[in-house]
From TrEMBL:
Keyword terms of this UniProt record: Signal
Signal sequence region: 1-30
Domain of life: Bacteria
Name by which UniProt lists this protein: Septum formation-related domain-containing protein
Length: 338
């Protein structure tokens, strides 16, 4: 005889109770064992698996810009640092040797600790009231730059007797699995930075730029090598995921034989923000007065004087302006092994 209660049989009620208990056990991730056979069998829970959060990406909306205005000493040399706001790290930097149609950049590089940017320049003595070195740095939160590594190298002089010029050149790429993120260079003599107010007279920059999968730093001096002078070359690399999808744009100036100032600008595609860039003279026959990101961070501009048929080349690297630091993490349904 079957006893009925509230529209269900006792057997049905018992089945519902067992099913409810099983559901609760599975939602708690329990492992149940059934008996009644020669060997016990296990029931594994089906749960929601959330992957570990990836590192933050560069987020252009969070970038901050800081300027420093460095004035020359009595010899026309200017140099110094600009630091990011407290708690932030440098993304990129640039400088302008601001004097009427004159001035030479002699150093432009990230600081080794990643907290700012350094620049040095030679400004004309006839412009003491208008000559200034305008140095800028673009900064982001450190979580967006956690994978950045700075690689350094000391480059010795190479003398070209045919044109009586001493060159310093470094051309290299990042290790496998890393992406170019920037770089820079300055010169030292016996361990002291030259062309800064406390330093001596040294080479001027003619290259500091991305070039395909490589970065090139270069400087030159129209003279024979000076004992103890070397170029310190910096290369910055980043995890490609943290960088996001990068695109590049290039622009070229005309060949120069007259030493006239040439200005070239490379623009990011629409909807993108610049995160690094630079310029170089072909064959190293030229100097740089300006190399910096544009005021709205959508381009890179360089200016300088070239000779011997050299042309000024500019490249800018860009990421999407709407890229956010923390993309949503997608949870997936997977079996949870026990």
């Amino acid at each position: 005889m079957t006893i009925r209660k509230a529209g269900h049989t006792v057997r049905t009620v018992c089945r519902l109770a067992i099913a409810g208990a099983l559901t609760l056990a599975l939602s708690a991730g329990a492992v149940l064992t059934t008996t009644g056979s020669a060997s016990a069998s296990k029931i594994h829970a089906i749960g929601v698996v959330t992957p570990p959060a990836p590192p933050d990406r560069l987020e252009p909306a969070s970038f901050r810009e800081v300027h420093a205005y460095l004035y020359p000493d009595s010899t026309g040399r200017a140099g110094g640092y600009v630091s990011c706001p407290q708690g932030m790290k440098a993304v990129t930097g640039g400088a302008t040797a601001a004097a009427p149609n004159a001035g030479l950049l002699t150093g432009l590089t990230p600081t080794y600790d990643g907290n700012g940017w350094y620049a040095s320049a030679v400004l004309p003595l006839w412009a003491p009231d208008t000559g200034v070195l305008d140095l800028e740095v673009i900064c982001a939160w450190p979580e967006q730059l956690s994978s950045v590594a700075t690689l350094t190298r000391t480059v010795q002089a190479q003398y070209d007797s045919s044109i009586h010029t001493t060159h310093y050149r470094d051309f290299r790429g990042c290790p496998d699995g890393k992406a170019l993120f920037g770089g820079g260079a300055f010169t030292t003599q016996d361990g002291v930075i030259v062309n800064a107010p406390s330093g001596g007279s040294g080479p001027f920059l003619n290259a500091m730029a991305p070039l395909g999968s490589f970065w090139v730093n270069g400087s030159a001096k129209a003279d024979s090598p000076t004992t103890g002078v070397a170029m310190e070359s910096y290369l910055r690399c980043i995890d490609p995921f943290q960088l996001g999808t990068s695109v590049s744009a290039t622009a070229s100036g005309p060949s120069r034989t007259d030493g006239v100032q040439t200005t070239v600008t490379a623009f990011c595609p629409s909807g993108h923000t610049a995160y690094t860039g630079g310029a170089y003279w072909t064959d190293g026959h030229g100097s740089l007065r300006i190399s910096h990101i544009s005021f709205n961070r959508t381009a890179w501009t360089a200016q300088g004087k070239g000779n011997n048929g050299a042309s000024l080349q500019v490249e800018v690297r860009c990421i999407r302006t709407d890229q956010v630091a923390t993309p949503p993490v997608i949870a997936t349904l997977n079996s949870v092994p026990r």
